[in-house]
């Protein structure tokens, strides 16, 4: 297979043919047809930073692919990244390397709670949060976000009630997929006050921490408190478009919690990773910064172009104010369709595969999630197809 171009030109399409891409090749399975532009699962149609590809090629050229340990340089790359980009000094011993953020959430819930314990999530939210609670036989408690105007906020009063009623853990999505919120320091402080009062453990999924639009700042909640139990999941996977490599990290300051989580991974026999994920992770954190800065300029321009187009030509769809992530949350309630009809309309008439809002909980009814991490011209073409399919 020919190597794709290595560039920060995000406009020129890069073919994913022959890569068994989930986003493209599973269209028939998930949407019943291949005849849709795939703007659903959260990866990008952009080449990863050149330094990542160079490092992977160099590693592949060493022809032994044996069992591999995590080198010190891997930890250092992560510490330096979070220090520089997020003003977060992470202790080396707090880092637990993991085979992905979703398995980490499963492992943390398993390690820190018992069967039947109540775990809170805040829908509409990334759907594996639901399964992480249910599959581990814990009790799911929902604290839905509140849509105020064109932006979501957390319901801290209801959160406190849930904690008072015995919930042990909150799984926080920060920034929040799918609604695009980058939580402000005042909101995080208020959340911490509830956690402090009720001894609530916070699992903070910060996988989207680097995908922040201008004028916004992501605050790692762990930097705001050392008297609340906070376990943070991070990864370069969304940031640099390397989720297929499958490596992430947990930051766990408490030794007993850390040992418990490591024990779960050991019990599951998933504590070792492959050499390619390790070298991709390290190269991204060491050399990907300029690429990321270019990416965020591009994604922001696309976000604004979508907003302008919807306002001018597709007022039936409202873009919920987005502060981060490349996932836009579209309010389609003014289209006056059932969820099944919305889903069918976008596939059959709009020729686009988006994630249905109900995937993220019942409160996602009437919404769709649009992945804009593709060439801008393609995104705008999709919007025009939708426009022409709607009565004018
Ligand atoms: C909030 C959130 N957490 C986790 C993941 C997936 O993480 P991983 O692939 O490392 O399991 C995603 C992917 O979309 C996500 O949006």
Describe the model.
The protein has 392 residues and is α/β, with parallel strands linked by helices. It has two domains: 129 residues, Aspartate Aminotransferase, domain 1 (Alpha-Beta Complex); 233 residues, 3-Layer(aba) Sandwich (Aspartate Aminotransferase, domain 2). 40% of the residues lie in helices and 14% in strands. The strands form four sheets. A seven-stranded mixed beta sheet has the order 2-10-9-8-7-3-4, sandwiched between helices. A hairpin with a 7-residue loop joins β11 and β12. The site of pyridoxal-5'-phosphate has 13 residues, from α5. Pyridoxal-5'-phosphate binds next to α5.
Secondary structure blueprint with pairings:
Blueprint: H1 22-25, H2 27-31, E1 37-38, H3 50-61, H4 72-86, E2 95-98, H5 101-112, E3 118-121, H6 128-135, E4 139-142, E5 146-148, E6 151-153, H7 156-164, E7 169-173, H8 185-198, E8 201-205, E9 230-234, E10 248-252, H9 255-268, H10 275-287, H11 289-313, E11 318-319, E12 327-331, H12 339-349, E13 352-353, E14 355-356, E15 367-371, H13 376-389
Parallel strand pairs: 1-13, 3-4, 3-7, 7-8, 8-9
Antiparallel strand pairs: 2-10, 5-6, 9-10, 11-12, 12-15, 14-15
Helix pairs in contact: 3-10, 4-10, 5-6, 5-9, 7-8, 11-13
This protein binds pyridoxal-5'-phosphate (PLP).
Descriptors:
392 residues, Aspartate Aminotransferase, domain 1, 13 helices, 40% helix, four-stranded antiparallel beta sheet, binds pyridoxal-5'-phosphate, alpha/beta
């Amino acid at each position: 297979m020919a190597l794709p171009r290595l560039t920060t030109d995000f406009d020129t399409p890069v073919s994913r043919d022959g890569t068994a891409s989930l986003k493209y090749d599973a269209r028939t399975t998930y949407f019943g047809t291949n005849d849709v532009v795939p703007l659903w699962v959260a990866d990008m149609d952009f080449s990863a930073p050149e330094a990542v590809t160079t490092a992977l090629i160099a590693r592949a050229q060493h022809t032994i692919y044996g069992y591999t340990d995590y080198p010190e340089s891997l930890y250092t790359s992560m510490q330096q990244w979070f220090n520089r980009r997020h003003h977060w000094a992470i202790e080396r011993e707090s880092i637990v390397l993991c085979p992905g953020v979703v398995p980490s959430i499963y492992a943390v819930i398993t390690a820190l709670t018992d069967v039947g314990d109540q775990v809170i999530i805040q829908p509409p939210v990334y759907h594996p949060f639901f399964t992480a609670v249910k599959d581990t036989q814990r009790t799911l408690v929902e604290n839905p976000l509140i849509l105020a105007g064109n932006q979501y906020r957390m319901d801290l009063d209801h959160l406190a009630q849930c904690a008072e009623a015995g919930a042990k853990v909150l799984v926080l999505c920060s920034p929040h997929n799918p609604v695009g919120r980058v939580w402000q320091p005042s909101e995080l402080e208020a959340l911490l006050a509830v956690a402090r009062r009720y001894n609530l453990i916070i699992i903070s999924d910060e996988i989207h921490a680097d995908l922040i639009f201008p004028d916004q700042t992501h605050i790692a909640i762990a930097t705001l408190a050392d008297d609340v139990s906070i376990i943070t999941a991070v990864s370069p996977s969304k940031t640099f478009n390397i989720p297929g490599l499958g490596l992430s990290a947990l930051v766990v300051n408490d030794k007993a919690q850390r040992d418990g989580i490591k024990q779960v991974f050991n019990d599951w026999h998933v504590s070792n990773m492959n050499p390619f994920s390790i070298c991709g992770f390290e190269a991204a954190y060491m050399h990907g910064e300029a690429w990321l800065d270019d990416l965020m300029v591009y994604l922001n321009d696309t976000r604004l172009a979508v907003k302008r187009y919807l306002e001018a030509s597709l007022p039936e769809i409202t873009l919920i104010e987005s502060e981060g992530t490349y996932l836009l949350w579209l309010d389609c309630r003014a289209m006056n369709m059932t969820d099944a009809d919305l889903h069918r309309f976008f596939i059959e008439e709009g020729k686009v595969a988006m994630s249905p809002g109900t995937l993220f909980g019942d409160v996602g009814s009437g919404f769709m999630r649009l992945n804009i991490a593709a060439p801008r011209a393609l995104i705008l073409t999709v919007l025009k197809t939708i426009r022409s399919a709607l009565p004018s």
